[in-house]
Amino acid sequence: MKGYVGVDVGSVTTKVVVIDEEGNPLGTPVYIRTQGQPIKAIQKGIAMVREDLPRNLEIKGAGTTGSARYLAGVLIGADVIRNEITAHAVAALRFHPQANTIIEIGGQDSKIIILRNGLVVDFAMNTVCAAGTGSFLDRQAERLGIPIERFGELALKAKTPVRIAGRCTVFAESDMIHKQQMGFSVEDIVAGLCEALVRNYLSNVAKGKKIYPPVIFQGGVAANIGIKFAFQRALGCEVLVPPYHNVMGAIGAALLAAEEMRDGKKSHFRGFDVAEMNFETSSFECSGCSNRCEIVEIKSDGKLLARWGDRCGKWEVIER
Amino acid sequence: MGNLWLGLKTALQELGHDVIVPPKPSKRTLTLGSQYSPEFACLPLKINLGCFLEAIEQGADTIIMAGGVGPCRFGYYGAVQRRILEDLGYKVNFIIFDPPQGRWGEFLNDLKKVGNGKPLYRIFSALLFGIRKLQVMDYLEKLGHKTKALEIKKGETTHILEKTLRRLDEASSYKEVKRIREEAIEELLSIPKKDIDPIKVAVTGEIFVVLEPFVNMEVENELGKMDVEVERTLYITDWVKEHLIPSLQGIRKHHLLEQMSKPYLGHFVGGDGQLSVASAVIYAKKGFHGMVHLMPFTCMPEIIAQSILPRVSKDLSFPVLTLVFDEHTGKAGVLTRLEAFVDLLRRKRMVSVN
Questions:
Q1: Domains in chain A and their CATH numbers?
Q2: Do B27 and A84 touch (CB under 8 A)?
Q3: Is the dihedral of CA A199, A204, A207, A213 positive or negative?
Q4: Does residue A166 surpass a pLDDT of 70?
Q5: Partner-chain contact A85 B343, CB within 8 Å
Q6: ipTM greater than 0.90
């Protein structure tokens, strides 16, 4: 049986999946926190995903995406390294070929992808602030002492959502505290936060774009049913959350790998033993010119795997 | 700004000046520049100021800065920078060079100021030699955009161009310049190349951000690495020809820009805003696959262009990606967007071919 590995390393979480040729996840998709240590998270994710894979599985390709896609690519020996916009679009189209709009909200990035007839025609990512993203909700849930998993259901219990200034995380936080001190209920505040996030997303990330249904909502924040309902209210249409919404980037990376390896090339995938390998990283500042580039090196057991960060290319090495 | 220094240095040296070229803009330039600039001024002011400070460190006692007549704020930058340097306690001779705009008398006066007592014809011949070097460099860069997309070993073109720039800097006669040009063309053409039909992308926007690779995070090189052929919509020598020298070419170009942007933007909005809108129309008609629009944060003319471009893009089914730069811009974000944009163009082409 043929399988493809997809790894999506984001700012907050790391996702690892193995899919079959049709794009269906095999075993259990992994969704864990990156905790600022991408290498460890990738290794842990690889170790977890191999637990319940079918026995006769043969890995034919591997792909990586997310903000640590290059690092992840070197670590696992990826055949394709692609940006998260393409990966998310490819994955969404696999499950919803008719999709016209994809809303993706992750830890630090939020994106809107506009599709027509199965093709990406336009996209945007948040540029200024994280007030429209998962980290913001995470932080506020912590402040309110609510587990983030329960955030959504609490929001649904709200009677009158409080209006919270959502332009910037700092202002949102002080406004939220103010509302708490005024005596509003936790449910109303939580619902207000969901609406603030949606408002912020629509006016900053999606500004000027025509949002037509079907609207697909994916990324970690899609787990939050409060946000989903807030989107439906704001857009006046149904918002679909796909079954594997939180690992769609990884599925997309795996699908892109499958596409890349269609003609039967040999995969560079290092195997699931990557979980046990030793990786070291180090960095230095090049003094060759006024650019003063910061160079990063990744080694495994003393062997140089990759080096990057220079503008001129004199240090750059990427081992396959 | 890009290679502009090459032409100015050559011209001023010909006039017998001792010229200090500040180091290429770097993180330090940016840090220095933004530290002493008003926050909401655009990046060109900050980088320029940083360069001035670095040049003063190296012993410069005279600074020549271009002026302007708006509506872009650039025209005001020379005056602001002069004040900032004064307030910091530097005593430098600050010459602001306003474009002629019909006031030829004043323009010639300004020219005489930098002429080091030389007669006008000497000043012009010095300028022409500087412009000649720039023309050669612009020509080679245009050729380089093609070879960057096709080269098998990425970076070869850049290497040749950098070497040629250094050689041109040292060249002291037209004959030498000619030889360097021919050798560079030869080298560029003999780079081993892939046999592919590259995606073609126009790069347009505010002139400083477009011409200065440090500021635009080397957009052109990054596109080249993705096997994309770039065509820049403005080059420094074209700008000089169209703005400083009254010529038929300038009038024609101006007319073309007006015509092309007319359905969307009927008049000049300062800086290069109208050019950005017109470029989308021109390059869509030329059969390019998409356009990357670059602008500094808070740039008024380009904000106008940015808000008009989605309509042009939709009408002509011509994808446009706008990238905004300031001192907080990170390379990772720019790269992700560029990669996604190129993917979009590739898939679009794949479908239209099938």
A1: 2-89+249-276 (3.30.420.40), 98-240 (3.30.420.40), 280-318 (no CATH)
A2: no
A3: negative
A4: no
A5: yes
A6: no
